[in-house]
Amino acid sequence: MNCPFCGDPESKVVDSRHSDDGASIRRRRECLKCQRRFTTYETVECMPIMVVKRDGTRQNFERNKILQSMVRAFDKRQVSTADLDRIATEIEQLLQNSLEREVTTDRIGELVLERIRPLDEVAYIRFASVYRRFQDVNGFIQEINSFLKEG
Which of 12, 33, 121, 132 is the least buried, fewest Cβ under 10 Å from its Cβ? Predict the structure, then answer.
């Protein structure tokens, strides 16, 4: 880290503290050449994840989209928003920890289905109906039969 005052690359850390949100570390540094102090912040660098949609287009991963789709599936069901938030966080962390920088919407949908299945059967079927694009009643019946066999 170069000193913002004199440009010298040598400095020492005088004080380190976690930021209020816990997402970064605040460091007070002192330049070894000019003895002036300055503040730096250290944060975790997250590589962007690209979502490959069914039509082949790509867009940045947005955790909020997963959360919104689950909220719609759980509409008028007995589940806490904390549970849905936890699931969205789990999926985001899983994707960030993988070595792949691109993920398909199909993969994301399967990750959501795996996690909502134990929470609520009706919400599971609702989410699956949108995710799997049921065209008629037979799609629902097949999914319900599959759900019952695995359960």
Answer: 12
